[in-house]
Amino acid sequence: MDALKKTLTVRLQELNLDHDQIEIITERVLAGDKDTVKLLLRRHRKKLMDILHESGKRVDDLDLLMYQIEKNKLSTGKFPDIK
């Protein structure tokens, strides 16, 4: 059981879950409560996907800015707001 707990803890740390989340998930795994574990992991997945999408938008905005600078559109007043 200790090996399972240690392995699970390391895996959850790699997924950037905080200490409290790791404790709860580990406890639920050891108790055999798969439904709660899946719910908690889905919630964390959603947070990670939100971060991914926001980062993707920032990359797109950065690419647009670089393109506009390259084409000298900043000095022509054709520079749209980035939201």
List keywords for this structure.
83 residues; mainly alpha; rod-shaped
3D structure, described in words:
This protein is mostly helical and 83 residues long. It has three helices and no strands. The chain has helices at 2-14, 19-30, 34-70. Helix 2 packs antiparallel against helix 3. The radius of gyration is 21 Å and the shape is rod-shaped. The relative contact order is 0.08. The mean pLDDT is 90.
Summarize the helices and strands and which ones pair or pack.
Layout: H1 2-14, H2 19-30, H3 34-70
Helix pairs in contact: 1-2, 2-3
What is the straight-line distance between the termini?
A: 50 Å
Query: What is the mean predicted local confidence, pLDDT?
Result: 90
Number of helices: 3
Helix content: over 70%
SSE pattern, N- to C-terminal? HHH
Structural classification: mainly alpha
DSSP strand (E) fraction?
A: under 5%
Low-confidence stretches: none
Which of globular, elongated, flat, extended, rod-shaped describes the shape?
rod-shaped
Question: Gyration radius, to the nearest Å?
Answer: 21 Å
By DSSP, the count of extended strands is: 0
Main beta-sheet strand count, sense and barrel state: none
